Amino acid sequence: AWPGIWIATAIAAVGGVTEVLAALALGWVVDAAVGHQGGGFWAQNWGLVAGFVLFFLVLRPLAFGLNSAANFLLIAPNVDPLVLSRLNRWTMGQDIGFFDNDFAGRIAQKQIQTARALTDVVSESINTVAFALASLAGSVALVALIDWRLGLGLLAWSAAYLGLIKLFLPHVRSRS
Fold this sequence. Notes:
- The chain has about 180 residues and is mainly alpha-helical.
- The protein is about 90% helix and about 0% strand.
- It contains five helices and no strands.
- It has helices at about 1-35, 40-90, 95-100, 105-145, 150-175.
C-alpha cells in the first residue's frame, strides 16, 4: 500500500500548497487594485484577473478534488482489504486453542473494526499531516518572500509550537 499512500500524501501536500498560493494570488490582486490610479484597471490587469479566476475556479478545486479522490478511491478501498487479509492470514495460523477462548464472530468483528480503524488513521493522517505540513512550509516561504526576518520568526514559532506538542502530548495521552 505504500506507493498509493505516498501518492495520496503528495496530492494532499499539493492541496496544502494551493492554500498558500490562494493567499498569494489574492495579495497580488489586492496590491494591483490598491496601486492602480484612475480608470482602465481591467485593461491593464486582465491577465492577473484571468489567472486569479482560473486559479480559484479550476486549479484549486481540481487540487482538492484530486485530494478527495486519492483518499476515497485510492486509500480507503485498498488499505481496508489489505489489512483484513493480513489479519485473516494471522488468524488462520493460530492453533485450535486460540478459538476456544473466543467466538469466531467476535474475532471477525474485531478484525473488521481493526481494518476500518487503521484505514481511518492512514486516511486522516494523510489529510491532516501532509496538508498541514505543506501549508506550514508554504506559509513560511510566503512570509519569507515578504521579509526574511518574518519568515525566520514564523519558522521559530512553528518549531516552538511543535516542541510544545511533543512535550505535552504524552501527558494528555496518559490522562485520556
